[in-house]
Structure formats: C-alpha cells, structure tokens
Automatic annotation (TrEMBL):
Gene3D superfamilies (alphabetical): Galactose-binding domain-like (2.60.120.260), Peptidase S8, pro-domain (3.30.70.850), Peptidase S8/S53 domain (3.40.50.200)
Organism: Pagothenia borchgrevinki (Bald rockcod)
P/Homo B domain location: 450-561
Biased composition (Low complexity): 194-204
UniProt key word Disulfide bond: yes
Protein's name in the database: SPC3
Domain of life: Eukaryota
Keywords: Cleavage on pair of basic residues, Disulfide bond, Glycoprotein, Hydrolase, Protease, Serine protease, Signal, Zymogen
Region ranges (Disordered): 169-204
Gene Ontology terms, MF aspect: serine-type endopeptidase activity
Function: Probably involved in the processing of hormone and other protein precursors at sites comprised of pairs of basic amino acid residues.
UniProt-listed GO biological process terms: proteolysis
UniProt keyword annotation of Membrane present: no
InterPro entries membership: Galactose-bd-like_sf, Kexin/furin, P_dom, Peptidase_S8/S53_dom, Peptidase_S8/S53_dom_sf, Peptidase_S8_Asp-AS, Peptidase_S8_subtilisin-rel, S8_pro-domain
Amino acid sequence: MVHFLFLWMMGALLQVCHATIYTNDWAIRIRGDRECVSRIAEKYGFTNMGQIGDLKSYYSFRHSETAMRSTVSNTQVSVSVATETEVEWLQQQVVLRREKRNSRANHVFSVNLKSENLPTAHPSNQTLHNDSMWRNPWYHSGMNIGGAWRRGFSGKGVVVSVLDDGIEREHPDLKPNYDPLASRDVNGQDDDPSPNYSSAAASNYHGTQSAGTIAAAAHNSHCTVGVSFHARIGGIRMLDGDVTDMVEAQSLSFRPQYIDIYSASWGPEDDGATLEGPGPLTRLALENGVRNGRRGRGSVFVWSSGSGGLRGDHCSCDGYSSSIYTVSISSSRSEHLEHLERCSSTLAAAHPGGEGMVTLGPQKSCSRTTAASSLSSSVGAGVIALTLQANPLLTWRDVQHIIVRSSKSHRLPDPDWSVNGAGFRVSHLYGFGLLDAEAMVLEAQRWRRVPAQRSCVQEDPQISRAMFPGSVLTSVFQSSGCSSRVVFVEHVVVRLSIDHRRRGDLSITLTSPSGTESKLLNNRPFDDSTEGFPAWELMTTHSWGEPAAGGVDSEDQRLVL
Ligand SMILES: *[C@@H]1O[C@H](CO)[C@@H](O)[C@H](O)[C@H]1NC(C)=O
Ligand SMILES: *[C@@H]1O[C@H](CO)[C@@H](O)[C@H](O)[C@H]1NC(C)=O
Ligand SMILES: *[C@@H]1O[C@H](CO)[C@@H](O)[C@H](O)[C@H]1NC(C)=O
C-alpha cells in the first residue's frame, strides 16, 4: 500500500514538472514586406525581434502583455493574429527540456592545473613525428588524427560553431582561433557568447570544453590541442535559458553561408522514457541548412548520439540524432559502453580522449576529463573540419559517404557487427566504426561528388493493423517504384503511427531486401507512456550502399517491418 502511494506521488510530481510552459515568444510566418511585419507586430502588442535565423518569412515576435513563463497559453492572441491574411502560420513557443550530454558526470571536478606541469602540443613541427602521447593528446585515440596533421590538415579555413551554454572566447586556448562572426548569444540576444559562470547551479563550461576539443590552438603551451587546431571556432550560447523550438532554429540556421559545421552535444532527456525530436522550425532549419548552407553544399550538423544506455534509452527516440541531416556520433571508449545507446541511425564513433586527458576548464583554466565525460561528437566535428579542409567542395552527403567508407570497425568489440549488402561492417553501437581522420582526408582529396539525392516515398496501402499483446507483427512491404528512382540506398526513414498501451514494450526491426536487419527500436523498460508513436520517424543507415531494388534478380524492393 505504502509502495503504491509512493509511486502515485512520484507520478504526480513528474506531472507537475512536465507541465507545458508557454513563453511570451511567438514564431510567425508572414508573407509581406517589412512594413507589413511591423504593422502586424504593433497592432497586437508585439515587439518584432527579427527574422528567425536564416529562415525567410519567419519572425520572432515577443508579446508585451504575456508572462515570460506561464502554464496557460495565450490562445486569444494567437487567434486574433491568425486573422491577418498575411499571417500564414504561427505558434506560441513552449519551453523544451534539453540536457547537455554527460554534463553531470563531466562536471564532477575541475582542476586548475599549472601550465608548466602540462604537456605542450606543437603539432606542426617535427615533434609531431615524435610518438609521444604528451605532444598529441589524440595519439592513442586510434583515429589517425596525427596522420591527417602530418599530411598538412589542421582545419585551416573551416569554420565550426558549438551550440551549447556558451564559449569562453578569452580562454587562452581558444582566443587565437575564436571567430566572432561564427558566434552569437541567442539566450541574451547579443553577439557575445561568453558563458555565465555566476550561477552556482549550472557549471557552464560544457561548450568551452567542446570548443577546445575541436579547435584549441596549438603552440601556446596551455591545456591541450584541438583536433582541428587551425579551424576557426565560434559559439552559439543557447542552452543557458529557456530552450524553445525557435531558439534551436535560430541557432542551427545562424549564418549558414559562413559556418561550415555546427556541433551539438545535447538533446531531449536520455531518461529512457522521452520521445522527442525537432519541432517544426528546427526541422526547417536543418533542411534549410543542408539545402542552402555552404553555398548549396550543405551545412554539416554533428550530433552526439546519446548516453542514456544505463536507463535503457534508445537513440531512435531522439529525433535530433536520428535525423538524416545530422551526423550522429557515439563514443568508442570502453568505459562508456554501458552508457551508450543503441540505434540504427548512428553513423560512426569517435574516441573522446583518454581518462584524465587535459581539456579546457572555466575561467581560463584547464581541467581533466573524467571517466564518463563524453566529447565524442566534438572530436567528430574536428575530424570533419580536417576533411572539409582537404576538400571544401564536399556536400553534406559526401561527408556522410566518406565516413561510411573510411570508418574502422576492428578494435571496437560489439557482438552486433554485421556486414550489410554493400559489404560495409555496421553496428547499432558504433555505426560504421571509429572515425579515421587520415583515411577521411585521403578519401576527401580524391572524392567525386555524389549525384543529387533522390528520394522515394511510398505509403503502406494497408492503413491499419491490430496487434495482440506479446505478439509479433510482421509487415511485408513491397515497393517497386523506388527501384528505378533510387539506385543505392543511403538513409531509410520509416514513418509510423502506433497506438499502444505501453510504448516501452515495443520493438521494431526492419529487414532490407539484402537481409540487413536494422533494429529501429528496442524495448525501453522505463517508458510507460500510453501515447504510442504519433507519426514518428525511425531512421537507419545500415543499408547504406545496398541496391534499392534488392538484388539482381528482383525488381521489387521488399522491406519487412
Ligand atoms: C620525443 O618525446 C619525448 C617525451 O616528450 C622526448 O623525451 C624526446 O626527446 C622526444 N624525441 C624527439 C626526437 O623529439
Ligand atoms: C547569470 O546567472 C545569474 C544566476 O542565474 C543571473 O542572476 C544573472 O542575471 C546572469 N547574468 C547574465 C549576464 O545573464
Ligand atoms: C615547435 O614549435 C613551437 C612553436 O612554434 C616551438 O616553440 C618549439 O620549440 C618547436 N619545437 C621544435 C622541436 O622545433
């Protein structure tokens, strides 16, 4: 009885925490000139805060008579603004729960180290040839980063921006590479992304640490050297405040002609019960980025694949890392194994550096990483910066192709490795394996751009099917329309709606015509939701390179779901 009560109370508490919080910000799409936008803003008591990032016709409006945070929406305002003929879409912004990956573990301690005790890195002169891990913190990563450096690649000319809690632009390791044009404070609405250290509760140096991993300067004998130590590095401060769909979209579409790589190590909670992905504006920002960013070659969005493994989480329930537009990176460090999430959308793994590796700390300090710290996606962003220097003409899909081809599976133990129909070894933990920087720059130099992306969308004619508890539902999906349009598969996205009494009990496997089995979803013990999957998209990269037609003697594509 007591037990029952306790559980009930927990449920009630959680409900309070999860109540929707409405902000005083609206995202509005208006077909009209600047005057028209100002007129509408003024008429309804808004301040026009400007266009949302690079998204044309989308504006950020702040309402003066609405509370900054409230549990009730102001539908009255929404309804009246919607009557304007030029207003095509609008949405009052709600607060999203977004967490920094591994931040808790990461911030257990930070040591101020005297710089004379620290290894120094001089990667561009002959010390590079010295096989000493002291001089190259990435030496033992198995990723051949030194090999890419020796070939002359250091990220020069490539611009990377870290979307996080800010970056310390005055940090001696960042200052030489800091780029104000790649930086923005979305939380504070200004151009200075410096983190706020005055809040004791939040240790806001996650972004600084990530930025250092990517592009800490060489030759300054301070904490460390970044993977791409000549790349220009910026920061977008967006996690230190209320995160909304609009905040994410502003950040992901900030200067897409200037920034090449966006690095994000955060997402919906990895609690094993959350099912969340990018909202409408953020989806638009990602699509806009790959279509138009980098003068049409496409922005590269690097994402961490999640660390909720201990809570039975599955990265397919994180719509950011499972988007086809993000390069989702997991960790190759054995201590991380139980934290890692399995899913079929992870593209590759990176080694975040050994335990105790020196990295950046707050207030110009250095710190040592702890066992659970995860900077893998930042390392991935650095390696991609080296690759883009080797060939700046690569498109966002070329980058993914190069990762698939050059990543290494040996030395990463996983019973799950399998060989897909195109001969690539792939796993649900590590994608196509550990990134290999030297192999990537070499591949990039001789790479010929892949043809334009083609997509094939087909609907299952059987609209709905019932499923019995404990049963297996096998759905064979035949598709012939794809075979002529899509020759080789890159991503496969399965969009489905499922009603179920307990979402965590579901698991979903997709078998390709070549026989590759992608675990699109695994059971999640902590997911008690009764909401099922409302038009959720699951993605797999495991059939990469396989013929869409399913072998020479078959005209039909056969997807078994
Ligand atoms: C290589 O590094 C070690 C350790 O820092 C140093 O003692 C040695 O002199 C270096 N060798 C060369 C050839 O630079
Ligand atoms: C920094 O955080 C503190 C505590 O949360 C807050 O009071 C202060 O206004 C913040 N400063 C800035 C510049 O945002
Ligand atoms: C390598 O370069 C750094 C900075 O330019 C310099 O201080 C150091 O002495 C150089 N090392 C060698 C062995 O030339």
